[in-house]
Structure formats: structure tokens, C-alpha cells
Amino acid sequence: MDYAKILKDIAIELVEDKEHLEVREMPSLEENVVVLYVYSAQSDIARLIGRKGMMANSIRQLMSVAGRKTNKKLDIKFESYE
Predict the structure, then answer these.
(1) What is the structure's pLDDT at 19?
(2) Domain that holds residue 49
(3) Which GO terms describe its molecular function (predicted)?
């Protein structure tokens, strides 16, 4: 399952600068953990995280449903370009 593509499809609808949105899957030390990094412009990272992290938590919950099908834990981190 391509978790990076699924996450990018979700996040691209939330940002204004769609060209600078990037989602990367990074290696993890644990075999059942998938680490995903969302890189976005500084102005859009606040939209992705939301107030008190509400949007980020919602994205993580939505992605965890995809991870349950393959017994994977998804660790999603948000970073901005400066």
C-alpha cells in the first residue's frame, strides 16, 4: 500500500501552495512502523497542523485506518520549508 500517495492526496486539498507539498516515506527501525514526513511551505504548515494540533490528529486518525489493513503503525510528522 502506498501510504505516501494516500497522505499526499489528503494533504493537497488543505494547502494553498500545492507545488511545494511533498510527502516522503522514511525507513524505520521497527518493521511494523511506517514513518511519513509531510513537507510544506511555512504558510501552509499551520493549516496542516491546525489549532492545538486538531487537524494533524484528524489526519493521523484517518491514516491509521489505512494502516490497520496491513497491521502497520503510521508515524506522521509535519515539517516546513524555510
Answers:
(1) 92
(2) 1-16+40-70+77-82
(3) RNA binding
